[in-house]
Each structure stands twice: as structure tokens, then as C-alpha cells.
Amino acid sequence: MAKNQFRERLAKLSPAQRALLEQRLKQMRATLPAEPSIPRRPTRDSPPLSFAQQRLWFLNQLEPESPEYNESITKRLIGSLDVSALEAAVNRIVARHEVLRTAIVLVDGTPQQLIAPSRKLYLPVIDLRAGAAKDRDGEALRLIVETIRRPFDLSRDLMLRVLLLRLADREYILLLVKHHVASDGWSMGFSGKN
User: Fold this and answer.
1) Is the pLDDT of residue 31 over 90?
2) Closest by Cα among 170, 189, 45 to 115
3) CA 14, CA 64: separation in Å to the nearest integer?
4) Fewer CB atoms near the end CB (10 Å): N or C, the chain?
């Protein structure tokens, strides 16, 4: 039955018929099985590493200075910017997502996730306005590449790194770098290309 036909039939019901329909719908809902859900993990338990996380941790042990699994995105921001509000927003994201506060540590020779109850992320702001206008983009690129290439220490670091570059009074570049152990580009909806 088409949506419009259904609406027309519903509109033609008498108040008694409508009340009976609502009662039957409530009864049907009550007899439906509950939707399956994933039970919430007790917060005191350390979740096991997924196979992908185990692989990434192992590769990081082989080459701890490699930035191979750093994923980045940059956004140019134009307009007035409340830097403290941006930092607070990033910290809310970190507070909401355990994976960004998770370190991987060895416990009895086995890698385990250690989730920090809270971690504060400091948003570094580098002001490039003092340099010559023609040199700003080059310096910004150098700082972006340097930040992206800095390896994560999976046993200590937050899995998210941010940098804000101020190019002009109302022009900024925001850089977000995360380690692939925390998520991937497919899940985040971006390819890491800027």
C-alpha cells in the first residue's frame, strides 16, 4: 500500500477505530523481542586488542620511529576563530572517545589497552603572521609535514595530535593527525588526502 493511501485510510478512521488501532499496535510492540544489543563493557576491564590493533602494535614495535600509520587531515579556516573554544571542542572529542585516550602497554608479555580516565590535549598555535606573506605557505607546509611525520609512542601518547597555524588575522590551518591503531580513514570518511 502506498504511503498516501495509508494516510487517507488512517484519516477516515473513527475515533473508536483509531483508539483500537493504537491499542493493537501497543500490544504488538510489547510482544516484539527486544533488539539485540552489544552489552556495555565494564569500565574497569581492559578490552582486548583487535587483530588489526595487534598487527599495528607489532609493526610499531619493529619500527617505533615510523610515521607510516599516521593519518592526517588539514582544513583551512577563514574568519574569526575562538581558539579556546576549538581546544575545548577537541578535548570534548577526546573525552568522549576512549580509543583516543588508549595506550597499548605490555602486561605479562601481552599487549593490552590501557584507557586513561581523562587526558587533556593542548592545542599548539603557531603564529606565522610575522613572516613574509610569500613564505607563510611554505613554512606552514614544513610544520605540517614535520607534525605528520612525528611518530606516536603507542604506550604513552594520545592517539590524536592537533596543530593550529595562524597565517593571517582571519586565516588558519587546522591539522589533525591520528594513529591508525585508533581508527582508519574508511571509518572516518576521509582518505587522509588534503
Assistant:
1) no
2) 45
3) 72
4) N
Give a three-class secondary structure readout of 64-83.
CCCCCCEEEEEEEEECCCCH
Q: Provide the residue count of the chain.
A: 194
DSSP code, position 24: H
Neighbours of 121 (CB within 10 A): 17
Q: Among the residues of the chain, which ranges form H helices?
A: 3-11, 15-31, 51-62, 83-96, 133-149, 185-188
**DSSP-derived pairing of the beta strands 171-179 and 160-168:** antiparallel
The mean pLDDT value of the chain amounts to: 88
Residue 140 C-alpha cell reads as 606552514
3-state DSSP assignment of residue 163:
strand
Nearest residue to 145 via CA among 175, 125, 172, 171? 175
| Alpha carbons 165 and 174: distance in angstroms, whole number | 6
- What lies within 8 Å, CB to CB, of 133 at 6+ separation is none
CATH architecture of the domain covering 51-188 = 2-Layer Sandwich (3.30)
